[in-house]
Amino acid sequence: MTDTAGAAPQAAADPTDPAPTNSALATAAQDRPTPPVARKAPVERTHHGDTFVDDYEWLREKEDAEVVAHLEAENAYAEAVTADQQPLREAIFEEIKARTEETDLSVPSRKRGWWYFVRTEEGQQYPVHCRVAAHDTEDLAADWTPPTITPGEPFEGEQILLDGNVEAQGQPFFSLGGMAVSEDGNLLAYAVDNAGDERFTLRIKDLRTGELLPDTVENVFYGLVFSPDGRRVYYTVVDDFWRPHQIKVHALGTDAADDRVLFEEADPGMWTGFDVSPDRTELLIGVGNSEYSETLSVDLTDERAEPRLLLSRDARVLHSIDPVTLDGERQYVVTHNRGPATDDAVNNMVSLVASTEFDKPFAEQQWRTVVEHRDDVKVEGTAVTRTHLIVSVRKDTTERVQIIPLSGLGTPAQAEAAEPEFDETLYTCALAGAEYESPVIRLVYTSFLTPSSVYDYVLASGALELRKETTVHHFDRAQYIAERDWATAADGTRIPVTIIRHRSVQPDGTNPALVYGYGSYEISMDPAFGIPRLSVLDRGVVFVIAHVRGGGELGRRWYDDGKKLAKKHSFTDFITVTEHVIDRGWAAPDRVAAMGGSAGGLLMGAVVNLAPQLYRAVLAQVPFVDALTSILDPELPLSALEWEEWGNPIEDREVYEYMKSYSPYENIAAVPYPRIAAVTSFNDTRVLYVEPAKWVQKLRETTTGHEPIVMKIEMDGGHGGASGRYEGWKDRAWDYAFVLDALGAVEPLEGVRIA
Question: What whole-number distance in Å separates Cα of residue 596 and Cα of residue 516?
Fold first, then answer.
């Protein structure tokens, strides 16, 4: 996200058997259904004196009945070719279901005078958002201890804010783009997407009566916030190219057509969003790309307030800002990669800046250091409570949290940072909540072997209080191992590798393996528990994560060394990791599959062009495989925003030639490709369905091999696939069944009972 012949998977199931011959594969291919063949309508694309002929660009016409018919034919072909995998899909789905606590609830989080939580019920696709009133006593610890609520049982005083199952009735798709409750707790603003295109409809609900107000705003983007008086809602709007470019204000009771544009960004290469200050009096508008940003402030207590520029893009500082009041003075905690006196803090540092300093020219501003820059620690961001600063950092590849008292911040009296300690080496500890007045902060801890666990960290004492570890049925942690290894690239760079396996699997050179990667946008593949992955491990598959350059695991330089004119490092690193796990005996040479999605789908397309012989199967999810075509067209969604990631091939000939040398669609060659599945969604606005549609056509046309190449398209889904948790489980089951069938790893390991 295979085939009905079964010759190749059966041979792979026993590593002592010879590999299937070309004649056997050809015979098997003849028995398969005939794949859909799109007509050719050549279109020439010329840039920098180079002309590329694209036979399948016409598939971009989404409203064309011929295009829709072709996509439906692709679905029918994929279903026919993989029909024999249906029992395996059903088995994996049932395993996911059996391991999941279907009737469950989140740990209540206190916000103002209420405890908010989410329920899930067995048989229901979507969560139910609820709250109960909080009570204040003289005991601060008791006031911030979550109430004990039993899953599946009513709780006195419980109020349903929004039931996703009710909202989704009669809709082909359902997703929330944001929820906000007014300061007085009386109104709920929420945004709903019923198509999967991430364009939401904003509605307002009166929580006292349960009635919807007449206010409706169409085509809003993620993020909502009320003004302190509850009379206005701030929201974001995207332009025709799906770029968030406006912050607008809706006054309750007025026509949405009259909503005021508070801020508009004209640069097509900049992304716009907003956040609210911890004390909820200030709106922080952020504009930026992956290399520099800008921040403006709006006084939420003044309905006529205009944005005030704090830190201009002209300073070319990549930063984020958190307001804080210290000793009665408004100041700002700034996470930044350079400052007035610092040019090279590539992994970020943290400074404290008085509000008045932003009125001066950048070079004359006085910034006080709170957290110094370190080459081995990346500062990811900050949050603020009334008494403490919380700093999220990445150290030794893993995300963790550090806590510093506000008293003495930015002075010689500043206290040392405290960091919660855990037993595992590979883990993720992330901030999940930091209410301004709270004496505790909420942390979420997880690892490859530890289900998501919720802790409250007591700011005054540093004590960790476990509130909940997610229940996973039929799971014995002792039966699995997760460990870090390192592969060495041709240029000497050491690449982090995560190897996850069942304890009984040993490096004897016979194992099936699935190598997963992403490697873009400085996004890290952090340790996290996944129930669906257990079904793969229990069938003896070694699950490998290649932490390739372009991600953020080893700081900003790791990212910079895998973007723009260094992008090929992501692809060669992935191949190096694959060869490494084979050489170390973790994988049989003929039993390796690869998987990645979105920009990780680009990774899949590039890797399978460079080293098709290494992989038995490739699963490309919503794959960005026609990257050059997309980025060359600034009229397409998000194209201009991508120039800071890949370079601008329109203006720069070197970038054009470099991208053309790796873009998967342009580099399909007459080689025997492995079996390939491209999984996509018709309404995806991030990676358009046309990219995998074209890619699959050209692969089939060009390959000299006989393995099946299929495309599965969700006609009612978005970038994340179909909506609803059960539909999501079915998607994961489809994906893993495709891989497991190709690897000959259909049955659980001997002695392993999954459910």
Answer: 6
Q: How many CB atoms lie within 10 A of CB 251?
A: 16
Per DSSP, the three-state class of 622 is coil
Catalytic residue among 598, 639, 681, 723: 598
Is 684 among the catalytic positions?
yes
Here the tokens at position 123 are 């048989």
Q: Which residues contact 705 (CB under 8 A, 6 or more apart)?
A: 25, 671, 672, 673, 674
**Catalytic, out of 684, 731, 735, 741:** 684
Pairing of strands 592-597, 617-621: parallel
Closest by CA to 558, choosing from 489, 628, 647, is 489
Helix axes 65-81, 690-702, angle to 10 degrees: 60
Q: How far apart are CA 70 and CA 68, in angstroms?
A: 5
Q: Is the pLDDT of residue 14 over 70?
A: no
Set 129, 520, 719, 723: catalytic member:
719
What lies within 8 Å, CB to CB, of 471 at 6+ separation is: 101, 104, 451
pLDDT, mean of residues 295-304: 95
Known catalytic membership, residue 719: yes
719 — pLDDT class (breaks 50, 70, 90): low
What is the DSSP track for 254-292? S-GGG-EEEEE---TT-EEEEEE-TTSSEEEEEEE-SS-
DSSP 581-621: HHHTTSS-TT-EEEEEETHHHHHHHHHHHH-GGG-SEEEEE
Sort strands 675-681 and 617-621 into parallel, antiparallel or unpaired.
parallel
**Does 106 qualify as catalytic in the annotation?**
no
Are the CB atoms for 213 and 206 separated by under 8 Å?
A: yes
- Chain centroid to Cα 35, Å, comes to 32
Q: Which two tokens stand for residue 295?
A: 């921040």
Q: Give this prediction's pTM.
A: 0.92
